[in-house]
Amino acid sequence: MTYSKIIVAIGLAALIYTHVLVSTQEQLSGQDSATVEDVTRELGPFQLSDQRFTVVLHERHITGATVPDPEWQTTLAEIEIKDEQGAVHYRESFPYEISGNEFSEILSASVELLQGHDRSGLLVTYGSIPSTPLGGQSWQVFGLFENKLVPFSKPIYAEGELATEPNGGVLRTETEPNLQGEVLNFRVWTGNFFVLFPVRVDFLMGKVIPAWRCFKVTARGNLPQCQYRLETDRQPQEEEMTFVRMHPEAEEGIGSADHIVVKRDSQVEFLAAEGEVRWEEDEQGVGLAPGDDFWIKVRIDGKEGWIHTQEDFAAIGLPQAR
Questions:
Q1: Does position 98 have pLDDT exceeding 90, yes or no?
Q2: Spatial separation of the C-alpha atoms in residues 150 and 140, rounded to whole Å
Q3: Are strands 286-290 and 156-158 parallel, antiparallel or unpaired?
Q4: What is the DSSP letter of 285?
């Protein structure tokens, strides 16, 4: 991901003050009447503990030109977060390009209050157009650490979305079974279904990290596989009858696979997924990347077991889609 692919979304809880600071006389090529303006928007204030913060968006806006889609006229050039005294706690600039009479990519934008159990922070949602159908968004958590507002990580991006939507401009952290601490759950697309990937928000240490670090002992050695909750959108079964190969464990070679008949009126339940979601960090962000060999635990007419090939996923109504 590049920062030129970032959109920032603005939370409903913030009061929005918009004013044009500078109208430049920069002429666009081939557009005698078109200019680019600098526009500043202030969002907030947001109350964190005993401090109040304002998010300042510095945008670039094309005026005086006929643009087929007005959505392509404004893009974000810089974001700042300031306290009541005007001190800048965070600043990041974003490159942009102009093609004809519009921007090549658009940054637009969002900030919500992130409410934890005992502490709170800010969640900046970034996204972009153009993008893939499930991509184009990333998320960055900010919070207080040693009385300064800091990012807890680089922007986190994935083919997917947050599992929980803000309510009234406030997003609340969640709890994860068998885990102390609070998390944000991300719906990460595997190609056939979504897995819920929990990211731990540590307000005390000022960081976000994967909630689980898993290793499974297998015949191929220790593999970084975790079990996740999953969300599916099962497609109607066209055949009157088909079958899947059901394994006793989420691993080839352990026990024998049974051929389980799946009828059109079979009761099918999806219980869990097992596989790897990689936390891939580079200079500009953190990607949540699913591995290629996911298993699903299913219950078909009362029989439980694991399936994992594309043939079996398609037979059970979860064909691959990119």
A1: no
A2: 10
A3: parallel
A4: -
